[in-house]
Amino acid sequence: MVDITTRLYDSAFYALCAVFAAVTALTSTLLPHRAWGAIAWVGYLLAAVIALAGLVQRTRLAWLVFALVALVPLVTQAVQRAAGRTDRAQEEVLVVEQAAVRLVHHGTPYLDRSAIAALPEPLLGYTPYQPGMAVFGLPRAAFGAAWWTDARIWFALLTIAIIWYCLRLLGPRPLIALAVLALPLATLTLATGGDDLPVLALGLLAVALTARDRFTAAGVAIGLAGALKLFALPIALVLLVLAWRSGRFSVAGRFAALAFGLPVLALLPALLVSPDAYVENVLRFPSGHGLVTSPAQSPLPGHLIAASLPAGRYVSLALLLLAGVLLAAWLLRRPPATYHAAALVIATGLTAAIMLTPTTRFGYLLYSVVFLAVWWDRDRVTPGQDSA
Questions:
Q1: Phi/psi of residue 253, each to 5°?
Q2: Which residue, 146, 148, 149, 180, is CA-closest to 163?
Q3: Burial class of 382 by CB neighbour count within 10 A (0 to 12, 13 to 18, 19+)
Q4: Average pLDDT, the chain
Q5: Hey, which end of the chain has fewer CB within 10 Å, N or C?
Q6: Mean pLDDT of all residues in 364-370
Q7: Could you list the residue ranges that cross the membrane (predicted)?
């Protein structure tokens, strides 16, 4: 039985999530988001009632919420999309699926600058991911349009498996479960786009494996994340310091070889086919030097500075560099000795990057929230609160 204070907090959390989902359904300018909100508010409201009753363990309730407000909207949108609705997926889903088609036919998921310029919608020609992300589009490339070949389905399957294993490794950590399974930043993202969830899940798995002193496996996990998205590399750097801090340099060496070697290995075929195409998609486009502007334009400080000040982009990048220097100094002066401490450094570094990068999205803050939950939840679980 969950104690009354926790029940009230959780019920209020789910009630606020229900309000957010309802407002999204009524006001969002993005049709996939509206479709998510129209279903999700009911699931969150039901969760608020269940949480108040306190009859379901918190982690199990988080899984139930995930099913109701992430998986049900996701499958609904995938079915509607397969039936012909073109407004039931965000652009990144199409981008990943088209990248898979190019990977199959041309050996690279990337188009070069001239090929992108020739497209009716150049934005959809850009693939600002590492080559591994195209794997999630392979079912659609191989079997055609069906609900189960939607890239989001495969994002979800991998994410579910990894998070389940993470929570087994970390033990009863309901706050982490709430952050990664129930927070609208996670459920909305998975249901409508989803490409960040496998990266986040693999990053969380890497941290969880270090908690069990399994640095080689952690290197594989974060290396796979880096093969999907460059956003994983700062996590790898912090965990490398943690591995070095353990005092076993051979362990740190194996971790580094896997964490940074796997992304390079995944990248080699694309570089051999067309290095210019990789640079155009993964470096020029996100940094604002592509043929079109990146849609990642959330009004966070880095974007506002870049958009409103003379030479604002350079000011923003200078601040980002300064934040990186300060973070490096923190790591050198006080290297993390536990996975909790590493999670705090990761959360701080990613938050600084998200806030100061000229092209950014609010949704990326999910990374920061989840790793902050790992740090915060370190000593705050008692046997009476959860056993799931």
A1: -65, -45
A2: 180
A3: exposed
A4: 93
A5: N
A6: 95
A7: 12-32, 38-56, 61-79, 153-170, 175-194, 214-243, 255-273, 314-332, 339-356
> Under 8 Å CB-to-CB from 365, ≥6 apart: which residues?
185, 351, 354
For 358, phi then psi, to 5°, come to -60, -35
Each residue's pLDDT tens digit, 51-79? 999 989 999 999 999 999 999 999 999 99
Dist CA 38 CA 193 (whole Å): 17
Q: What is the pLDDT of residues 89-130, one digit of tens each?
A: 999 999 999 999 999 999 999 999 999 999 999 999 999 999
Q: Are 238 and 70 contacting, i.e. CB atoms less than 8 angstroms apart?
A: no
Spatial separation of the C-alpha atoms in residues 266 and 220, rounded to whole Å:
13
Q: Which two tokens stand for residue 132?
A: 């591994």
pTM, to two decimals:
0.94
Domain ranges of the chain: 1-88, 89-296
d(CA 378, CA 372): 10
Helix orientation angle between 196-211 and 184-192, rounded to the nearest 10 degrees: 130
Segment 10-34, tens digit of pLDDT: 999 999 999 999 999 999 999 999 9
Q: Give residue 24's identity as a one-letter amino acid code.
A: T
Looking up tokens 């705050």 gives 380
DSSP character at residue 29: S
